[in-house]
Amino acid sequence: MTTRSGRILRVALPVVLILVWLAGAAVGGPYFGRVDEVSTNDRAAYLPSSAESTVVGERLTDFTGDDTIPAVIVVESPDDLSPDNDRLTALSERITEVLGVDSSSPAVVSDDARAAQLFVQVDADGELREIVEDLRETARDAVGADLEVWVTGAAGFSADLSRAFTGIDGLLLGVALIAVFVILVIVYRSPLLPVLVLMTSTFALCVALLTVWWLARAGIVVLNGQIQGILFILVIGAATDYALLYVARFREALAAGQARWPATWTAWRRTIEPVAASGGTVIAGLLCLLLSDLATNRALGPIASIGIVFAMLAALTFLPALLAITGRAAFWPFSPREQETPVEERIERARGVWPRTARAVARHPRRIWIACTVALLVGAAGVVGLKADGVAQSELVLGESEARDGQVVLAEHFDAGSGSPAYVLVPEDRAAETVALLEEAAGVASVGALSADSVSGTVQVSADGGELVASSDGPPGAEAPAPTVSDGDLLLVATLADAADSLAAEETVEELRGSLDASLGDAVALVGGTTATDLDTNDTSIRDRTLIIPVILAVVLLILMVLLRSVLAPVLLILSVVVSFATALGVSAVVFNTVFAFPGADPVVPLYAFVFLVALGIDYNIFLMSRVREESVRHGTRTGILRGLVATGGVITSAGLVLAATFAALGVIPILFLAQLAFIVAFGVLLDTLLVRSLLIPALTYDIGRAIWWPSDLSRRIPREEGPGRVGSTP
Questions:
Q1: 70 in a domain, yes or no?
Q2: Residue 461, SS3?
Q3: Residue 488 belongs to what domain range?
Q4: Residue 333: cis peptide before it, omega within 30 degrees of 0
Q5: Are 323 and 439 part of one and the same domain?
Q6: 310 and 204 together in one domain
Q7: How confident is the model over 501-513, as pLDDT tens digits?
Q8: Same domain for 485 and 427?
Q9: Phi, then psi, of 463 in degrees rounded to 5
Q10: pLDDT band for position 144 (50/70/90)?
Q11: Residue 588: per-residue pLDDT
């Protein structure tokens, strides 16, 4: 290639790469405001088709004729509601005029005459949040200011959950980017470089979101508010981490006296392997979620993997192009100085944090790694207090929730499970036997059956001498409506004594399933409804957690073995990350129980935390150990460890602070799951960055020496080391 053509390529290639990414960001940017078009927060949609609640849910329309979601309107008065019958009747009529409302029952007054409830069926295909907001406004207008009104039930809780995610695009992204920008300005003391790094991560997110949006639109993946928030944070954090690694290598090359283009090529060659290994490890860990039975977990795997792919591509193409054009100006006013102090001299005499750390590791390696291990194990002891067996749906939203408040009022005046019953699908010839069993159950307040002939849509039933008896809901002497029969089955309605989203209600459903299986023999009776959906979701999450965590460990271990050409080093790295994860969970459990007084955690929280902490936590070990191996080949293992620690200390710590800050930003979304995940991952990343990678791993590998690379040739090679009195010398 001629000199002239080489100069053209050095200008044209960066310009083309920048224009390509600008085009991708321009197209993908507007999709930030369109995520609601392809997302869903319906928990029932996440379960496998084999789950009991899924089977019952699919059959529900056979009995109701419409695909609806129940809502309960609760009206409370400080006095007797009897004089307000006209207003309650008018309320029932006006509710049916709300767009998206399929039907409404007459008002049912409580025994104490101080409250009334109306059962409303909302179109499942409508804009649920808007429908519920209209319901709330219409109900308040209809009853007047002297009565209190709440809209609760499954539709109310779903609407509140959806409202909690409102503004996630702007709020979450804004908080994350501001946090990253502040950290980068402090680290680099440059006004331009942080902007270039943030452009890299933001453009990566734009293109990733564009890809994910169309996959969700095509029905290939399931997207919800939680996955959306995680995608934003993961891409911003990972892209920034990879960018910082490249910036560090580029700065080293400039400091060595190289011009912009040679420095770009040198930095790229030295960055691609650790970034590819790191990103590949994260992607492999995320794709293990495809083994999950929950659709939302299966979706997170490929969606987050897509984000990581674009984070890697942006850090390895867009950022190098930007720095190739800006050169030393990107670091202004503190441009890299040529002929900086050699690494060996910095280790021996420099006063910086990392040279001091390297000297401490060299002098007391065994004392340091044992002390770090003991500290981690003490923190891990708190994991026994982690309550991750599920929480009530009413606890998912932090802060205000009208549905939760309405559920409390409902429980004060009616059976707490009103409006969100358990549905029991049973053969018609075993219906009476099933009703008798339901009537005897301690957690069941009343039993009915769906009936197309009933005004309210249900009819009260009982078992009398082995026969199913229906009660009339009309005037005295009127014939009782018959329960609807579909394909030889009846759908019984069991109103629970406890709130449908409570753990007590889940225990009732679990007991009912066991009793029905034991009593009906070959006949199949399936229990569904809101409570059953929550129960099935928790059970499936626990099963996923038990299966996926060992698989992730095995996959990550194999990748590390290939990357480091060793068996012992990867095993020790995996063990360190596992202990660090246990410590993060243990400390988080103490904080959740004593500081925040959280009611518990969803079973999927430890799984997600594990995926991110193992996949992302191993990143820093990859950054460190890949550099250590590079240095060990030329200078020996112990010297290589110290050189690698000094060379990567600043960049990895900066990357850890950035990733912790971005995950902590999830805490601004008032959702219990995201708040807990934000704390666990942010704390765990800081633990990995500041303790495990900075002290534990360097001290442990230094103490072991070249045997750390067993069984590769490097474990047997004895290169020329420094003299016996120097830091890093071989014993």
A1: yes
A2: strand
A3: 410-535
A4: yes
A5: no
A6: yes
A7: 788 888 999 999 9
A8: yes
A9: -105, 120
A10: confident
A11: 94
Q: How many domains does the chain have?
A: 3
Same domain, 96 and 198: no
Give the pLDDT score at 616.
73
- Locate 270 and state its tokens: 């030295």
Q: Which residue is associated with the tokens 């209600």?
A: 505
Read off the pLDDT of each residue in 307-321 and give the average, rounded to a whole number. 94
Q: What is the pLDDT of residue 590?
A: 94
Q: How far apart are CA 561 and CA 556, in angstroms?
A: 9
CATH number at residue 310: 1.20.1640.10
Global pTM? 0.83
At residue 455, does pLDDT exceed 90? no
Domain boundary (480, 504, 535) is at 535
pLDDT band at 313 (very low <50, low <70, confident <90, very high): very high
- State pLDDT tens for residues 52-101: 888 888 888 888 777 778 888 999 988 888 777 788 888 888 888 888 88
Task: List 103's β-bridge partners, or say none.
Answer: 121
Does residue 288 belong to any structural domain of this protein? yes
Q: At what angle do helices 568-594 and 672-687 cross, to 10 degrees?
A: 130
pLDDT tops 50 at residue 598: yes
Distance CA 241, CA 184 (A): 11
pLDDT computed for residue 719 by the predictor:
54
Helices (H) and strands (E) in the chain, counts: 23, 11
In angstroms, rounded to a whole number, what is the distance separating the alpha carbons of residues 31 and 41? 19
Closest C-alpha to 527, from 537, 519, 517, 518 = 517
In a domain, 154, yes or no: yes
Render 556-574 in DSSP notation, one character per residue: HHHHHHHHHT-SHHHHHHH
Measured between alpha carbons, how far apart are the two ends of the chain, in Å? Answer: 50
Distance CA 103, CA 457 (A): 10
Residue type, 256: A
Q: Hey, is 145 helix, strand or coil? A: coil
**196-213 pLDDT, tens per residue?**
999 999 999 999 999 999
**pLDDT given for residue 729 in this prediction:** 43
259 within some domain: yes
Q: What is the DSSP letter of 421?
A: P
Rounded Cα–Cα distance for residues 603 and 297 (Å): 12
Contacts of range 595-598, beta carbons closer than 8 Å, 24 or more positions apart: 598/672, 598/676
For residue 140, give the CATH number of its domain: 3.30.70.100
Is residue 326 within 8 Å of residue 192, measured between CB atoms?
A: yes
Let me know whether 454 and 511 are in one domain. yes
Checking phi first, is residue 503 left (phi over 0); if not, alpha (psi -120 to 50) or beta? alpha
User: What's the rounded Cα separation, in Å, for the pair 441 and 404?
Assistant: 26
The 3-class secondary structure across 264-288, one letter per residue, is HHHHHHHHHHHHHHHHHHHHHHHHH
Q: Tell me which of 507, 535, 563 is where a domain ends.
A: 535
Q: Is 399 exposed, middle or buried (CB count within 10 Å of its CB: 0-12, 13-18, 19+)?
A: exposed
Domain identity same for 197 and 325: yes
CATH number at residue 529: 3.30.70
Residues 500 and 475 sit within 8 Å (Cβ to Cβ) = no
* Dist CA 649 CA 643 (whole Å): 10
Average pLDDT over residues 380-390: 87
Is the model's pLDDT at 177 over the cut of 50?
yes
Which of the four pLDDT bands, split at 50, 70 and 90, describes residue 365?
Answer: very high
If asked whether residues 32 and 76 sit together in one domain, one would say no
pLDDT band at 474 (very low <50, low <70, confident <90, very high): low
How far is Cα 684 from Cα 687, in angstroms, rounded to an integer? 5
Q: State how far the Cα of 321 lies from the Cα of 199, in Å rounded to an integer.
A: 12
Q: Are residues 302 and 213 in the same domain?
A: yes
CA atoms of 320 and 342, how far apart (whole Å): 25
Can you give the pLDDT at residue 128? 82
Is the pLDDT at 265 greater than 60? The verdict is yes
- pLDDT above 90 covers a percentage of the chain that reads 17
Q: By 3-state DSSP, what share of the chain in percent is helix, strand and coil, each rounded to 5?
A: 65, 10, 25
